[in-house]
Amino acid sequence: MATIFTAWQGVQERIAKAAAASQRQSSSISLLAVSKTFPGDAIRSLYSCGQRAFGENYVQELIDKHAALSDCNEIIWHFIGPLQSNKTRSVAELADWVHSVDRFKIAERLSAQRPEHLPDLNVCIQVNVSGEASKSGITPDECMALATKICQLPRIKLRGLMCIPEPTQDLTQLAKQFTLLRNLQNQLITAGMNTDTLSMGMSGDLETAISEGSTLVRVGTALFGARSYPDNSSLL
């Protein structure tokens, strides 16, 4: 408990320091604990520290952890991974947020499958700000059209945009990609869409993301430790 609490405090301090450097209130930036691949006990420990928002990338993990942690009834579940159309039902029924909407078909299915007794499902459009073929997300030019269509759907609410930038140590290039997402959100707001969320920034680049306007940072390794992946570039 002490170790994960120390890590959680450290991330909160990084957020506060980055916010202060950008003359922002740290309360305007939410921390999403990316718990993918980590066991329920790790989530429970962080929940005991006061963390409430947790992010999962895989549908089966969301199903399993939602059930195992049902007694932690203040958890806010965010689905942040690629979502196939044949797996939307469980996400529509269990998640509070979906960050990775990149096709209208996905939004339609989430809307149709969201139970009526639940609050509207919060969604973000994932934008491919780096142009990498390996990245999910729509192109920047497609953002306005998709956002306009999503806003017409019932039982889901468009909250904003999400991106995963290219892994680079070039802070100028990184900032440009975050700025692109912020500018796209400003276009949505100008068009009358009341979006309030920029989901950008991870363990290694949250300071740059906050300086460019992030309202939600997705942090995993800085909280839970390193994951075992064949390719560590996929770490959040």
Automatic annotation (TrEMBL):
The modification N6-(pyridoxal phosphate)lysine is found at residue 36. Keywords: Pyridoxal phosphate. Residues 29-227 form the Alanine racemase N-terminal domain. Belongs to the pyridoxal phosphate-binding protein YggS/PROSC family. SUPFAM superfamilies: PLP-binding barrel (SSF51419). Pyridoxal 5'-phosphate (PLP)-binding protein, which is involved in PLP homeostasis. InterPro entries: Ala_racemase_N, PLP-binding_barrel, PyrdxlP_homeostasis. PANTHER family: PROLINE SYNTHETASE CO-TRANSCRIBED BACTERIAL HOMOLOG PROTEIN, PYRIDOXAL PHOSPHATE HOMEOSTASIS PROTEIN. Pfam families: Ala_racemase_N (PF01168). It comes from the Bacteria. This is Pyridoxal phosphate homeostasis protein.
